[in-house]
Amino acid sequence: MPLFKNCVTCDLCINFDKDEVCICDKCCLLYHSQCSGLSRSDIQLLLTSSKQRPAFHCNKCISEKAQMSDLLKTISDLQAELHHLKQAKEEKSLLIDDVVNEINDRKRRENNIIIYGLEESSNDSPQVKEILKVVAPSICTDDIGIIRLGKSGRNRPPPVKVVLHKKDDVLVVLRNKRNLKTTHSNIAISTDNTKVQQEHFRRVRAELEQRKMKGERNLFIKYVYGTPTIAVSKNVN
Prior knowledge:
Blueprint: E1 4-6, E2 13-15, E3 21-23, E4 30-32, H1 40-46, H2 59-109, E5 112-116, H3 125-135, E6 145-148, E7 160-163, H4 167-176, H5 180-183, E8 188-191, H6 195-213, E9 219-224, E10 227-232
Antiparallel strand pairs: 1-2, 3-4, 5-7, 5-8, 6-7, 9-10
């Protein structure tokens, strides 16, 4: 008794005793050979039992495979985008943390000055107060903090950090530090800069030297709202 099933494409009955039948190797659905969409030579090769017989995938399976490929690509793209967004969020979070830490660090240092070139002694207080008296006689020097930074025994004495009572005292010292040229020419005074500020100053100074080497003249470092920048002197000789 012949076996009958319907062709997926034409929905007509397939007579296995008479009709050429193509079976999808993926979904195992049945097709008349003329409904399979294959050429005659492909059908003949498909109906043989040769080892070179090609696999037959129906249009439905091919379409599903393409859709699956598109879906996998979409998933991959979404995963990459999510990874990028997560990374950007983490970097942004780190950036915000860095900014907050930098602000706090500058706040902690705003009452400090650094004195360079001060010879070491068993008690630095008299020397420090003498220097402050020259540059800023109006500020209070009672109970100020005086700390040597770094180890002794080097070619130059370690710098001294001086903790003044308020930020305004620091500004007074910085405005008048040039007064030391006549009495303490070996002494230099600066603000207590963070590592970020120090690195920025090094970059500005390196740029200044490069521009001078290229022939630019009358350049100098000017502080604008506490930030070092390169400026051009108006006094051109």
